[in-house]
Design a protein that fits this description.
about 55% helix, about 180 residues, mainly alpha, about 0% strand, 9 helices, rod-shaped
């Protein structure tokens, strides 16, 4: 009797070949299905972004273009200095926001006017102190220069408002580079 009892103590839970076959298949198949399920979950594209209420809007925001192309009418008439001031410059220069010299304040504009028109235009184009660069926005460089002349003249300067670059426009229309035309 003691032989039978010691034999059962050393055997495992699998007693038949059928149990061995089922256990072997399940030991292989179950982990494979778990891995496949995890891969499908991770690679699915329908997971909402963190904090996104509208999934389509969140996806559109993530895949938006980095840059854009804007087509403008090159033959449109140039805007006057007053128009540029009203549309672009008055937001800061009318009230003197962030240290901007107020429109018509001769005392604040005097040291700036002494630097000359070209220096003022370069400050407007590239930005200075709290003023961001104005070049490349809604106005071309000549229009920005006209706005600078308008503001400086209101404070006592006697700058002439720049004219449209007619020589560059006629050279470009003829197909001749501007550099070659200016060398002649």
């Amino acid at each position: 009797m003691s032989d039978t009892h010691t034999e059962e103590a050393h055997t495992g839970p699998i007693k038949t070949p059928k149990q061995l076959l089922v256990t072997s298949i399940l030991a292989f198949v179950v982990p494979v299905f778990i891995i496949i399920g995890l891969v499908i979950y991770v690679s699915s594209g329908n997971k909402p972004a963190a904090g996104a209420d509208n999934l389509e809007k969140a996806v559109a925001a993530r895949i938006q273009k980095v840059g854009s192309v804007e087509i403008r009418d090159a033959n449109r008439p140039l805007r006057s200095g007053e128009d540029v001031y009203k549309a672009q410059c008055s937001a800061c220069h009318a009230a003197g926001v962030a240290g901007a010299p107020k429109f018509g304040d001769a005392a604040a504009w005097a040291p700036r006017i002494q630097t000359g028109f070209d220096a003022l235009v370069q400050s407007a184009m590239k930005g200075k102190n709290a003023m961001p660069p104005q070049s490349g926005g809604d106005f071309n460089d000549t229009e920005i220069a006209r706005g600078v002349a308008y503001m400086a003249n209101a404070a006592g300067a006697k700058f002439t408002e720049p004219a449209a670059p007619a020589a560059a426009a006629s050279d470009a229309a003829a197909g001749e580079p501007a550099a070659a035309a200016s060398a002649n």
